[in-house]
């Protein structure tokens, strides 16, 4: 499969698919395709895996698109201003991603639920208790909110990340939470009470414009629905 990521803040990935090759997506993100791309909606692994995907923030069902009678073309668009990144998933290089980051992938990539080992990281870390794990073998496309910034962490090296700014990390990384030091900092600092701490070894992908931060910024400017 060949692909081309187009656009800046509102990107789209255009995939040139070989005959009989299948791509999957979970959000109905298809925006255009050649007439020979056949769509099939499936639970892709049974009700157990479907429920697992639902808990990780995705839909119960997946859409499969297969090129019939020759090569085909299909495009998947971002749903929010940001970046589309392609990752080569291998058995030795799975990827842990935030909820709703998955855009599309080759059929050989498997999505599953990833639970954080420590409850505190899930309930207070801001990234959600349940994330997604991409494993298998193939190309996967992720949707990043805003611009993607990437770091390689060595063994024992850590990065402190504010709520929502973690997009993805290597499965070899660990996640903890820590409180913002000082009562004054917590109450008046405007950065919240907890930060997420990611420790290597591994690769991390950060995003500069988390959708939840955008929503919180817009709330004061939205008209009130309360009627007097």
Number of strands: 19
Looking at how many chains there are and whether they match, the oligomeric state comes to: single chain
Count of DSSP H/I helices: 4
Quote the CATH topology: Double-stranded beta-helix
Broad structural category: mainly beta
Query: Unreliable segments (pLDDT under 50, ≥5 consecutive)?
Result: 121-127, 184-190
Strand order of the largest sheet: 5-6-3-10-13-8
CATH superfamily: Mitochondrial biogenesis AIM24
Name of the level-1 CATH class = Alpha Beta
Element string (H = helix, E = strand) = EEEEEHEEEEEEHEEEEEEHEEH
Rg, rounded, reads 19 Å
Distance between the termini: 58 Å
Question: How is this structure best described in words?
Answer:
It is a single chain. This protein is mostly beta strands and 228 residues long. The protein has one domain (2-217): 4-Layer Sandwich (Double-stranded beta-helix). It has four helices and 19 strands. The strands form four sheets. Strands 5-6-3-10-13-8 form a six-stranded antiparallel sheet, with no helix packed on it. The chain is globular and about 60 Å long. It starts with a strand and ends in a 10-residue tail after the last helix. The relative contact order is 0.16. Residues 121-127 and 184-190 have low confidence and may be disordered.
